[in-house]
Amino acid sequence: MHRTRVKICCIASIEEAEMxxxxxxxxxxxxAQMPSGPGPIDDExxxxxxxxxxxxxxxxxxxxxxxxxxxxxxxxxxxxxxxxIVSHLNPDQYPQIIAALPTTRRVQVIHVxxxxxxxxxxxxxxxxxxxxxxxxxxxxxxxxxxxTGRTHDWNISRACVAATAKPVFLAxxxxxxxxxxxxxSVKPFGLDLCSGVRTNQQxxxxxxxxxxxxxxx
Length: 217
Description:
alpha/beta
């Protein structure tokens, strides 16, 4: 039986990284500067956490940069094993990123606002290692690129999973009390969450343990 992977996002310190790893997290999300949303930390802290995290746990740099040069510079400074591009980057930028960062795993966020999300899967598939489906609103008056705490239409998410052979992470409003339904509905490769395991913006060990128990087969 496939084990659903778990990525804990908005990690803010080495102590939070240790807590998430001890709970069984497969990957950690490190949020850089964003136009809105929870969890951003400075690039120096991201670099320190990325250097600390042991294999096989992956480290994801969440970058809002929208040019190849910007993404490349950001990853090179932070030293993470993966880059999570949270904007709907022009696919034309990807060949330069691939050439410059051949060993960095590339994860494209798809903000599931409507059925156009499936078309975005097709547009990005040649260039990425995985997708992450989130509930942001890139075109909103205040741009949202993640960390909303909202679920989206899981029927569209299920169609996105069916449209690609690449691994797909599901994000957006996941908690211990709805994660089983999310897994059964969408059948993602992995899950990504931030607010669902936090209290007063701090990683909550009890909520984390409850979530990991809910995910277990």
